[in-house]
Design brief:
globular, four-stranded antiparallel β-sheet, 337 residues, 28 strands
Length: 337
């Protein structure tokens, strides 16, 4: 009930954005000297009014997008803050996962530390809230994921199935399923309510780098260093398609908002867009001079951004595969966007 005004505001803003056609023309607005050491990740809240950054300086910072001013500094970890997340769509909680083996939950309005979650025996490398903001998942190089009650900080379930470190986790839209990807070459689908393993997704011949549910929750996509993308049927756990074409490791994969398209970014310097239904490649996006570490569609699905070790971000038109803009200014490789 307390979040009803937040949701109403977000729906109104989303309706307005959907009516606006993005041109893909961007220019440098601000340069933020965010941290004293390199950044590890960045993430927007749902409305885009604020974003957070994690860093090797052991802090997470909250920023105002329009002004570029620092709003909060979340200081308390004793090692690298590697994984960060808002509890979108609400945006009133922030989770930070660290190499100190701890995950902290913070109040995004005041910066108050609400909970310190202890349970992992090694570095935390991925964190994610479910869509209701009730459950937080953390993944670690100790080969486990842990589900936590985001309100009271209590452990709900320890998920043990992988034989190597976790590198990816993602909730489905309903929040009742979680997929985890691991360096053991498998992904696992879990029942969030019971903590039980539903399916082990086996088929990749190399380490998993990225996993994601589609919006409907009936498919999972996985990318691997074996240079392939696989599409999995959630109810059965069966692989329904293997997407090939890349010549090197795949570092990131994602669905568009409707689930009709999949994008994959690779160490071969290209991004490929595939049809989910047919598995056919629609575009090979070439132009970067280094590996592509991150790919992401805009909410409308008309644009795709890619981040690369060549120190640039590129904006692509999904319909044509044309590069609309090259965003320059960074002096070292980019690994989050």
């Amino acid at each position: 009930e307390r979040r009803r005004p937040i949701l109403r505001s977000l729906i109104e803003k989303l309706s307005s954005k959907l009516e606006t056609k993005s041109t893909g023309n961007y220019s440098l607005a601000k340069v933020l000297q965010a941290h004293i050491l390199p950044l590890t990740n960045c993430a927007f809240n749902k409305s885009g009014s604020q974003f957070i950054t994690g860093s090797y300086d052991r802090t997470c910072k909250l920023w105002d997008t329009e002004t570029g001013k620092e709003v909060l500094k979340l200081d308390g970890h004793k090692n690298v803050v590697y994984a960060i997340a808002f509890n979108n769509p609400f945006g009133d909680r922030i989770a930070t996962g660290s190499f100190d083996k701890l995950c902290n939950i913070w109040d995004a309005k005041t910066g108050k530390l609400l909970h310190t979650l202890q349970g992992h025996s090694k570095e935390i490398v991925c964190v994610s809230f479910d869509t209701q903001g009730d459950v937080l998942a953390t993944g670690s190089t100790d080969n486990t994921a842990i589900l936590w009650d985001a309100e009271n900080g209590k452990t709900l379930h320890v998920l043990e199935a992988h034989s190597a470190e976790l590198v990816s986790l993602h909730f489905n839209t309903d929040g009742n399923l979680l997929v985890t990807g691991s360096f053991d070459n498998t992904a696992v689908i879990w029942d969030v309510t019971t903590g039980q393993r539903m399916h082990v997704l086996e088929g990749h011949s190399g380490e998993i780098s990225s996993t994601q549910f589609n919006f409907a929750g009936d498919l999972v996509v996985s990318g691997s260093i074996d240079s392939t993308v696989k599409i999995w049927d959630v109810p059965t756990g069966k692989c329904v398609n293997t997407l090939e074409g890349h010549e090197d490791e795949i570092l990131d994969v994602c669905f568009n908002s409707t689930g009709s398209l999949i994008a994959s970014g690779s160490a071969d310097g290209t991004t490929r867009i595939f049809s989910t239904m047919t598995g056919q490649q629609k575009h090979c996006l070439a132009g970067h001079d280094g590996e592509i570490s991150k790919v992401s569609f805009n909410p409308q699905g008309t644009l795709l951004i890619t981040a690369s070790s060549d120190k640039t971000v590129r904006v692509w038109e999904v319909e044509t595969g044309k590069c609309l803009n090259v965003l320059t200014g960074h002096t070292d490789e980019i690994f989050s966007c």
